[in-house]
Amino acid sequence: MGYKEAAEIAGVSIRKMRYLVESGEILARRCGSRVLIAERDLEAWLDSLPLVVDTGAEAEADTETATYDEGEGVPSRARREGAARVRAASVPDVHEAAA
């Protein structure tokens, strides 16, 4: 696959994909003037990325940085309703989304 397809699968820009190949983070091969990235090499790079895990430390940090209503001592309604959690995405989820 070329830069464009690899970038779409990985969820990064074509420019970022070129940087990752040029820096050696992702292995690629040259076929004439084309640069080809093997699916296994892209998967190896994706597997090397750290997982996003909600360890509870984020929940504690959210509480510490919450804004408080004066005199009430509880997080403001906007803060409570606006709080978001990050779901850990596994590599199979990335591949299913690309399919």
Q: Give a count of the beta strands, DSSP E runs of length 2 or more.
A: 2
Q: Widest sheet: strand order? A: 1-2
What is the approximate shape? elongated
Helix/strand-derived class? mainly alpha
Strand content: 5-15%
Number of distinct helices: 6
Poorly predicted residue ranges: 74-91
What's the N-to-C terminus distance? 15 Å
Number of domains: 2
- Helical percentage: 40-55%
Q: Roughly what is the average pLDDT, rounded to an integer? A: 72
Roughly how many Å is the radius of gyration?
20 Å
Describe the main β-sheet briefly: 2 strands, antiparallel
Strand and helix order: HHEEHHHH
InterPro entries: DNA-bd_dom_put_sf, HTH_17, SinI_DNA-bd
Protein name: DNA binding domain, excisionase family protein
Organism: Mycobacterium avium (strain 104)
Pfam families: HTH_17
Question: How would you characterize this protein structure?
Answer:
Residues 58-99 are annotated as: Disordered. It holds the Pfam family HTH_17. With 99 residues, this protein is mostly helical. The chain has two domains: 1-49; 51-91, no CATH class. It has six helices and two strands. Strands 1-2 form a two-stranded antiparallel ribbon.
Summarize the structure.
By secondary structure, this protein is mostly helical. The protein contains six helices and two strands, in the order ααββαααα.
Task: Name the features.
99 residues; two-stranded antiparallel ribbon; DNA binding; mainly alpha; HTH_17; SinI_DNA-bd; 2 domains; DNA binding domain, excisionase family protein; 6 helices
